[in-house]
Amino acid sequence: xxxxxxxxxxxxxxxxxxxxxxxxxxxxxxxxxxxAFVEEGGxxxxxSLADKFDQLCQREGYxxxxxxxxxxxxxxxxxxTSEGGAFSSLEELxxxxxxxxxxxxxxxxxxxxxxxxxxxxxxxxxxGRVAPALRETARGLTEFGFAAAEYMAEVGIIAxxxxxxDRLFADIASLKRPFxxxxxxxxxxxxxxxxxxxxxxRTLADCGGVVGLNFCADFLSDDGSAEGQRAALLAHAHxxxxxxxxxxxxxxxxxxxxxxxxxxxxxSRMPVFLQLLADEFGARIAEKxxxxxFLRVIRDVL
Length: 302
What we know:
alpha/beta, TIM Barrel, three-stranded parallel sheet, 11 helices, 9 strands, globular
């Protein structure tokens, strides 16, 4: 079974990346999205990462894609996405589009000119003063963020809300267009602000979007063992399907942006995960989660 993964951080991996061409091919990857993660440096940092993406595709033999029609079944296809503060003007957002970005977030863990993140106090979270379940509910898209969202809809960039606040999620949903939470899980299973509530999952489904299961151990379960992570992945998949139905579940591993997952350490292990989904939910739902739901969204928007 081939699969599509909406998020990895191989472009900014510290040390040897877990996402490699050899491992993606071994795991059966059809489309891997590579995030240009910009914490500092703005558009110039993005441009540097876009250059790195170009070099990576050439070195690893990835087939670059901009839309569903570009995808080749005989290749590992690669799509460029952005995360964090990659743009601060519509002109820079146009620059992202021109470099091939087709999925873009508005924030990472700190506010940007476009909006506010899941955590109201990220520094407090890191120091242990603030519980990870505390959610930002009051602040969402800024005026510029709304303008950016409209521009993205106009040119064909999918809005990504995985790091966005509850209000930012609602702001994007109010536009009534398909959008994604590229790498998030279910708050009903693990109560972190980075995870989606049942209501958000239902809203995402109603808008024609998808949520990509994130393999980060902290977002999955307090049990970091291989068996604990395996059970947690199934629990999150059940929760997403229960809240949003079979058209909303997808994959967003977050490989190279997270510590090792004891059950799924790298993409070469993806067949084990996909078989787990098939055994639990049947082949049709597993195929939808693996590729069809994501492909539907990019066909609808791009």
